[in-house]
């Protein structure tokens, strides 16, 4: 069968293990913050590939660097290094708190590596008792057995028991509860500066500051999961910069490759040394194709004007969402930072976030959910004002339909 043979959405249900339930249409082309499906219908993209497409679809500079690298070198494996990966590591180290990096392929892999590093460092440095991990309720850190156990959403973990032990959860933004769990047996505390999948809930500055102090007191590593918040999403290159709290380890993925799979673990040198030769690894991580693209993504995003533009776009969204709220009081709270925005539905519309995003798609807008009660937006960082306004106009039509249906 030729790779150009036409496909239909129904074939997904036939051929795929049923872990996903994608939309009834298939996007086939993208440009910037817009997409077109097989039927030629156009959509404004407020989903951004789940905060991945930071520079939109088919960005010319990314297309060029990918094509150029594809004509030179694709893959080597970890027995060799390459030029793009060194350039990318150098940029990340120079731009952040980190001294050294490890590249892999997904946020889950980056978090897995961070948790393994923390456990190994704790045992190597302090002894076999130093293995406990503190995480937070409603968190999401990935789908490996270790990371799904650290995540604070039992629905993702309970069917895969027995789970790795030594992980305790405190309520998010509850410093006193965290302090009750963190002790001299704790090797790491892992936290999202903004809980993404958990509802787009920003951390209180005092909460992160308190975690930093507790980790210092008990010689535990503070891990920031910036898989969703990193690479410009909040208007800072990484969200920790806006909080003024520096972690020991940081994980980055999603936007780092602008759509090409890549992830990174950033670490201070004194902790990075725990993962010595042979202690951890990856086949595809740090391959030249991914690193060439990620290097260009960082080059474009790590500029003051672009980052300031993210904060400006946040205000565009707030203005438009407040206008919708005045017409249809559907939101209980609008929260988030930069271009990671969550709209929590009012109690009357509890559980209908997916219904609203389905209606939005019918109106020509792609949006996300963050649990059953929160509509989430994570568009391209370079989306223009006309696209924001048009997308919100389409959202308004979807909201009007949801409200009308609820009244019947």
TrEMBL record:
N(2)-acetyl-L-ornithine binds at residues 143, 282. GO terms for molecular function: transaminase activity. Binds 1 pyridoxal phosphate per subunit. It comes from the Bacteria. Its cofactor is pyridoxal 5'-phosphate. Its main location: cytoplasm. SUPFAM superfamilies: PLP-dependent transferases. It is found in: Cytoplasm. Keywords: Amino-acid biosynthesis, Aminotransferase, Arginine biosynthesis, Cytoplasm, Pyridoxal phosphate, Transferase. Its EC number is 2.6.1.11. Pyridoxal 5'-phosphate binds at residues 107-108, 140, 225-228, 283. The modification N6-(pyridoxal phosphate)lysine is found at residue 254. InterPro entries: Ac/SucOrn_transaminase_bac, AcOrn/SuccOrn_fam, Aminotrans_3, Aminotrans_3_PPA_site, Class-III_PLP-dep_AT, PyrdxlP-dep_Trfase, PyrdxlP-dep_Trfase_major, PyrdxlP-dep_Trfase_small. It catalyses: N(2)-acetyl-L-ornithine + 2-oxoglutarate = N-acetyl-L-glutamate 5-semialdehyde + L-glutamate. Pathway: Amino-acid biosynthesis; L-arginine biosynthesis; N(2)-acetyl-L-ornithine from L-glutamate: step 4/4. Homodimer. Belongs to the class-III pyridoxal-phosphate-dependent aminotransferase family. ArgD subfamily. HAMAP family: ArgD_aminotrans_3. May also have succinyldiaminopimelate aminotransferase activity, thus carrying out the corresponding step in lysine biosynthesis. This is Acetylornithine aminotransferase. It comes from Pseudaeromonas paramecii. The lineage of its organism: Bacteria, Pseudomonadati, Pseudomonadota, Gammaproteobacteria, Aeromonadales.
